[in-house]
Design a protein that fits this description.
Blueprint (H helix, E strand, L loop, with lengths): L10 E5 L4 H12 L3 E6 L12 E5 L5 H15 L4 E4 L23 H29 L2 E6 L2 H5 L5 H21 L4 E8 L10 H10 L7 H7 L9 H12 L10 E4 L7
Parallel strand pairs: 1-2, 1-4, 2-3, 4-5, 5-6, 6-7
Length: about 270
Amino acid sequence: MEQWMDLSGKVIIVTGGSQGIGEHVTEALCKNGADVVVADLMENEKFAKNKKVHFIKCNVAEKVSVDAMVEEVMEKYGKIDGLLNNAGVSRPRLLVDFYGKRPEYELSEEDFDFMTNVNQKGVFLCSQAAARHMIQAKTGVIVNMSSEAGMQGSKGQSCYSGTKGAVMSYTMSWAKELGPFNIRVVGVAPSINERTPMNDDAAFEALAYTRGQDPQNISSDYEKVIPMGRPGKLDEVADLICYLLSDRASYISGTTINISGAKSTR
């Protein structure tokens, strides 16, 4: 019986695919038949024996590293059907530490460059390198990982929010540029999800400080503003991304889909 969402024969690059959302996306893509290239700084051992997964060490913020990764993909597979720009970083920081107690949680130039290099420059470099080959093939899909914070802003996460807002603009602009070559560009904007390395205890402590909250209560406070009453599951985000990378989403381009359980600023 034919699968409804069959990705067999498709070659898809997942940046940051070794952990967090990327790990779940990699697993879901494999289950749907895709060959997945995990482009990350470290390899996930659980994928080491999976013949559907090929790991390439890559720093998305360095052009030489990105270009080498894409060339290796082309040498091994001869094509790129999809790219998920998932690699991302966050450091909760205030513009000004008006509490006057934790100056390390005030946004520094190093913090700014770190987040911008990975979240914005990395998306640009990977998309450009992959799109060169997609244009020649006249087919392909680029999915950019944005965030609800990029849509609405987020207290204590101004720089992170700014990078994700930029990703939304890239998505709309590149969809217009690449559409004539039958290349779709779509964004995904998750909200509060299950714990990942990006929102570990240290991140919760920093975010709680920027918001004047108790770190022990910040998670439950989040859930109170989600109408569906719970944080999102990483597999739910992965399922959406698999759909967008599939031919079932063949007319979806130039938009960013919010997956948030109806969470908003109220």
